[in-house]
Amino acid sequence: MLSIISLVLFGIVYVSSDDTDTATILEGDDNIEDITTDSKYKKYNKFLSDDIYDCQCTTGHNTEQLDIDCDSDYISQYIQGLEEYITSNKCNQYCSNQKYIGSTKEAFRCFQAFTLLIQYHVYCPSKSANETLFHQYLTQCPDCLETHHQAAYAPECDSSLNCTDIDDQEAEILFVTENCIQTCFDTDCEESWQIIEAYHRLCPHTEITEEFDTIYDGLSFVGTACLGIISCNVPWEANYVVDCELNVNHGYKEMLSMYGKLDLIEDIGIKPTKDAAIYHFNIFVVFVAGLSLLLV
User: Fold this and answer.
1) How does pLDDT run across 268-285, given as a tens digit for each residue?
2) Ranges of each domain in the chain
């Protein structure tokens, strides 16, 4: 699958109460710590912008929750459910020029749904998204910052990468697809795998092509013969701590406090089918057990 950390300048909308439709664009708050003065941001690599907000401050889903979701048998259903929700509710109506412009609970739920989709797209090692839909929304809604799952013992991603080199993006991923899945004999496989991982982890979503993302989604990360040498890690992500009090996050955090964490079942209506299957299977087992007792 495909993912990336992205940077975009955007506006933040703050709703003053539950029963108001009036939204105010936050230009800044002198009482809130400015992101540009925070030392941890000074350690960011060249691909990151000071103005990108943290996804978690909008959805309420932290990396601990993402670990659970990404390892779940339901992750594909979560992603599909989010995509269906933002499509059926026309959630792009609440964004304009890569800014969130909504002013109601319904609008914020839409924005949370797209933001959580970004988190899954970035964090989950293996997932599949509708890349056409994803990239369409990025032309209207702001991108956000989510760290990637850290690969054990992997080297650092190459920060000399040119994210705007579209030809190289597609050449490298096509090389891996054709030469480094079934076998790993080619000496260039390790380098090419780590280059496409670097594109995926380092570059803004807006600088990665839909074609690259679509091919990346279809790669066999578990089934590749190169397993064990395909990953790289972004150095600053290992010890990254989200601070929702930063000026860039504060408006979203206020709306999160007002409307609450996004609930996939209650808010989005996702009801994983496996749960139902297990439930009915358990009922069947209980029925059979009870019947057996009666026949004894």
Assistant:
1) 999 888 654 443 344 344
2) 1-150+239-271, 151-232
